[in-house]
């Protein structure tokens, strides 16, 4: 089975960006359903292929991995009703679990990316991750500095990192840059050409495989 994203999927998302209102969306609902089915087929391919590397995602259903296209506008100044991307997450215990996992984001205009980690962990989970880093800093740095990992994802950074050391950690701790972080996420952008390429599935799987030790480390912290 081919798992290639069709140009019409990105075309629909481009149009949605220009016509982000309910009347247009309802007139083009069939196009949306085709775009969603297109991405769902790709997600099925990711599960099938990557589960050979991370068996914990083997039981996921593609439809449960995809996010809704409807935006929650209750607390946002932006009242446009629809997201202008299609995305999926691959968590070992399902999509809705707030835990480390893999992420795929498809959005035209060079905004697509492949990523993974955990974003805004709960306070107690953040404490556990920091403790795991504190206890196993050498292992954590070996993961982050692995050459292929570094080439694909660059350096681990967090724009929301604390300015001061978190409570219980000294400013001169050798891992203080990581301990100040509030998000632990890596990823890389993919062009529209890469999204439409027959090689996309292999690219996703290879990126997920590279970040698996990182996901394993974060998951272990929360399993303890």
UniProtKB/TrEMBL annotation:
Top-level taxon of the source organism: Bacteria
Signal peptide: none
InterPro entries: CHP02453, UCP028451
Name of the protein this chain belongs to: TIGR02453 family protein
Lineage: Bacteria, Pseudomonadati, Bacteroidota, Chitinophagia, Chitinophagales
């Amino acid at each position: 089975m081919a798992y290639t994203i069709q140009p019409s999927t990105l075309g629909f998302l481009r149009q949605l960006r220009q016509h982000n209102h309910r009347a247009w969306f309802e007139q083009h609902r069939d196009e949306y359903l085709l775009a969603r089915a297109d991405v769902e087929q790709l997600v099925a391919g990711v599960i099938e292929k990557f589960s050979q590397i991370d068996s914990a995602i083997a039981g996921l259903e593609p439809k449960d991995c995809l996010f809704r296209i409807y935006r929650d506008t209750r607390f946002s100044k932006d009242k446009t009703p629809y997201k202008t991307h299609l995305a999926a997450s691959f968590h070992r215990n399902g999509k809705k679990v707030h835990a480390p996992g893999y992420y795929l984001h498809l959005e035209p205009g060079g905004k697509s990316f492949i990523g993974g980690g955990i974003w805004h962990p709960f306070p107690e989970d953040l404490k556990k991750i920091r403790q795991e880093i504190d206890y196993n800093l050498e292992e954590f740095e070996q993961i982050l500095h692995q050459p292929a990992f570094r080439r694909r994802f660059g350096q681990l950074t967090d724009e929301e990192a604390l300015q001061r050391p978190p409570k219980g950690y000294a400013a001169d701790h050798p891992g203080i840059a990581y301990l100040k972080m509030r998000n632990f996420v890596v990823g890389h952008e993919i062009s529209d050409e890469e999204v439409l390429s027959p090689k996309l599935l292999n690219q996703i799987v290879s990126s997920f495989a590279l970040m698996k030790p990182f996901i394993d480390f974060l998951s272990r912290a929360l399993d303890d």
